Write a sequence for this structure.
């Protein structure tokens, strides 16, 4: 056995082996009982820079009918307080997802062997009216959830989590929440407005959408208006894990505690890309230094395996501030990792 044999191989090097032809990787035997699910278009069928501009170059369909999970975009930035641009997030995340391959080499997950997944496009928000847009989002997600599909949302500013949670709670009842973010997003109002990207979880609590004793906020940091800024949630039963408590450590033990606390309750995962340090993810509107690493982000999402996830979002990617595309690339990878931990996979 040659360790690292693949690392030394080149197209011109002689191949080692028995000389017998290998079966084609994609060939399923006729007696194979596994159903054929949608597959991402592979790089050997179409160059990675071509093909459909869908998430992972998956098939697109109009509704979530027949799907176990769906990628859906919400191209919105009209709830943003600082730098805009997240209206372009879903497009850029889809573009940067084109390199994603179907098999998770680290965890062994093979979501496209077990789940029917498609990209169902974008929600047609009204970009001139945030309140109307929230109602459009809730109605769209009620329709998605009526098919039993689990939505994986490409944002979009963080306002969207509130109208999505309205639909989720209407179907599942109040849910547990894992909220990864630099900010608590529990403001009473912003500039006098109750609906904005800094208020979604305050509105969600007021609407009875959350099980407050099963809400976990991870990565909070930065400057505030008052020392108690992160206490509104704590006072209602949230567990707040500030960024400083995450520095220099693995978050796997934290996630084990969170899984134990949530148990089998339905849970929603809301991942704000600004939870990551701007060294990794500068392409977002409200940057705070001292954030999570990409490794910790993977530990958080992979640590959701075993939970009864009923929906996930990845928000606040702002392509105008992401000239390298790496913020959107990380977002695409994290959405794939969310898919890998959804229920229904061994
Ligand atoms: Mn946020």
């Amino acid at each position: 056995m040659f360790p690292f044999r693949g690392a030394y191989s080149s197209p011109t090097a002689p191949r080692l082996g028995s000389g017998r032809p290998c079966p084609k990787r994609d060939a399923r035997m006729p007696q194979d009982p596994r159903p054929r699910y949608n597959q991402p278009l592979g790089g050997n069928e179409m160059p990675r820079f071509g093909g459909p501009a869908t998430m992972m170059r998956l098939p697109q369909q109009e509704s979530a009918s027949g799907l176990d999970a769906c990628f859906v975009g919400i191209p919105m930035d009209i709830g943003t307080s600082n730098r805009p641009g997240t209206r372009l997030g879903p497009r850029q995340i889809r573009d940067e997802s084109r390199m994603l391959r179907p098999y998770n080499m680290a965890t062994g997950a093979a979501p496209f062997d077990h789940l029917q997944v498609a990209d169902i496009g974008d929600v047609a928000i009204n970009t001139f009216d945030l309140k109307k847009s929230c109602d459009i989002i809730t109605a769209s997600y009620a329709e998605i959830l009526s098919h039993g599909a689990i939505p994986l949302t490409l944002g979009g500013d963080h306002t969207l989590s509130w109208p999505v949670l309205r639909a989720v709670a209407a179907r599942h009842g109040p849910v547990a929440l894992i909220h990864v973010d630099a900010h608590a997003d529990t403001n009473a109002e912003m500039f006098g407005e109750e609906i904005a990207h800094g208020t979604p979880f305050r509105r969600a609590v007021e609407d009875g959408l959350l099980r407050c004793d099963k809400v976990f906020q991870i990565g909070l940091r930065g400057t505030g208006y008052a020392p108690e800024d992160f206490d509104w949630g704590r006072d209602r039963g949230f567990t707040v894990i500030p960024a400083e408590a995450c520095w220099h450590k693995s978050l796997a033990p934290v996630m084990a505690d969170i899984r134990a606390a949530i148990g089998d309750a339905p849970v929603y995962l809301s991942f704000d890309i600004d939870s990551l340090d701007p060294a990794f993810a500068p392409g977002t509107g409200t940057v705070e230094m001292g954030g999570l690493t990409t490794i910790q982000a993977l530990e958080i999402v992979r640590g959701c395996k075993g939970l009864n996830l009923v929906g996930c979002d990845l928000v606040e990617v702002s392509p105008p501030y992401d000239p390298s595309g790496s913020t959107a690339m990380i977002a695409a990878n994290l959405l794939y990792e969310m898919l890998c931990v959804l229920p229904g996979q061994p």
